[in-house]
Amino acid sequence: MRGLSVRQDEFPIQGSFTISRGSRTAVQVLVAEIIDGDCRGLGECVPYARYGEGLASVRRQIEGVRPALADGLDRQGLADALPPGAARNALDCALFDLEAKQGGRRAWEIAGLPAPGPLTTAFTLSLDSPAAMARAARAAAGRSLLKLKLGGDGDVERVAAVRQAAPGARIIVDANEAWSPAMLAPFSRALADLRVELIEQPLPAGGDEVLAATARPVPVCADESCHHRGDLDRLAGRYDFVNVKLDKTGGLTEALALVRQARQQGFGVMVGCMLATSLAMAPATLIGGLAEFVDLDGPLLLATDRDQALVYRGDQVEPPTAALWG
Q1: Alpha-carbon distance 80 to 28, whole Å?
Q2: Cα 269 from Cα 260, distance rounded (Å)
Q3: CA–CA dist 24, 30 (Å, integer)
Q4: Opening angle at CA 69, ends 64 and 72, nearest 5
Q5: Quick one: pLDDT at residue 24?
Q6: pLDDT given at position 1
Q7: What is the pLDDT averaged over residues 239-268?
Q8: What is d(CA 222, CA 175) in angstroms, rounded to the nearest whole number?
Q9: 96, 58, 59, 89: which is closest to 74 by C-alpha?
Q10: Is 56 left (phi over 0), alpha (psi -120 to 50) or beta?
Q11: Among 1, 72, 5, 87, CA closest to 42
Q12: 304/170 Cα distance (integer angstroms)
């Protein structure tokens, strides 16, 4: 009979991390551990208040399927037992890890994917004044892809300052729903002139219909607007890319299905993450090879990380070892 353990871990952030919705100095995660004999499968999730989640509510969801897990609940059954979100992510990834350990195979083999190689990941700069973001960009010299957190008023000046500080870097930006419809056209034109390659979630998810009637000189990526395959039809004509995050999809199983269906419907793909440790990044690295943009820098923003952590060399992240996950 399989057992389940759930624990909460906290990791300090290097300094602070700021987006349009606020700042943090630490990250709290939940880890689900499924035990079957001598094998233990691990999965990490980040409950996100923007999606109505909290540490207590997500823990209750995980604990709620304890009897089903003991009776042999698998990843397919899990999709019926829990909605997309952080709880299902932790359990789905733990089941993947458990299956890999029990079968002596790597998780990418189970998923039908080729062996992963190193990925170029974006490096995120927190929302700040133009001068402070320029300093951060200079400190990140040598990183080829920068992701800038934006917040509305002053965003063009922020990007211009970073572009001047890092003239050779590729730049993508994430407004986290902070723009108004009136900002969309002028900001997009200005960012195109500054060689920005992607604008992530400029408008609130509940008010993004204007994107369908607005020219997009820079491709636009859905983040808060896209959680799972059921969202794609509504996003057609509004977005060019979707940001696939395991804490939104409910794990690697749905994330893979979302990537494949998004491709079929003509969307580009970005694989992203919440601010979390290498244990949360590891499953997401498996779909990095299927994406045009990879944003899996969460551990780089923390002051400490897991044992057997992912290896980052400059802007490259290596695949996880079996000792970490999968």
Answers
A1: 27
A2: 10
A3: 17
A4: 150
A5: 85
A6: 82
A7: 98
A8: 11
A9: 96
A10: alpha
A11: 5
A12: 27
Active-site positions read 149, 245
- Which 8-state DSSP code applies to residue 13? E
How do 3-19 and 268-271 pair as beta strands? unpaired
The distance of Cα 67 from the centroid of its chain, to the nearest Å, equals 30
Assess whether pLDDT exceeds 90 at residue 22: no
- CA dist 38 and 147 (Å) reads 41
Place of tokens 């794990």: 251
Distances (CA, A) of 238 to 7, 191, 215: 39, 18, 10
Confidence at 18, pLDDT banded by 50, 70, 90: confident
Q: Which residues contact 9 (CB under 8 A, 6 or more apart)?
A: 28, 29, 30, 31, 277
State how far the Cα of 102 lies from the Cα of 164, in Å rounded to an integer: 52
**Token pair for residue 203?**
């408008």
Q: Is the pLDDT of residue 21 over 80?
A: no
Per-residue pLDDT tens digits for 137-169? 999 988 999 999 999 999 999 999 999 999 999
The rounded distance, in Å, linking the Cα atoms of 185 and 211 is 10
Nearest to 304 by CA among 29, 19, 1: 29
Q: What is the pTM of this model?
A: 0.96
Q: How far apart are CA 55 and CA 252, in angstroms?
A: 21
**Nearest residue to 220 (alpha-carbon basis) of 194, 195, 201, 193:** 201
pLDDT over 80 (residue 182): yes
Please check whether residue 311 is in contact with residue 318, taking contact to mean a CB–CB distance below 8 angstroms. Answer: yes
Of 87, 123, 137, the residue nearest 273 (C-alpha): 123
Residue pair 26/10 in contact (Cβ under 8 Å)? The answer is yes
- Count Cβ atoms within 10 A of the Cβ of residue 237 and give its class: 0-12 exposed, 13-18 middle, 19 or more buried: exposed
SS3 category, 10: strand
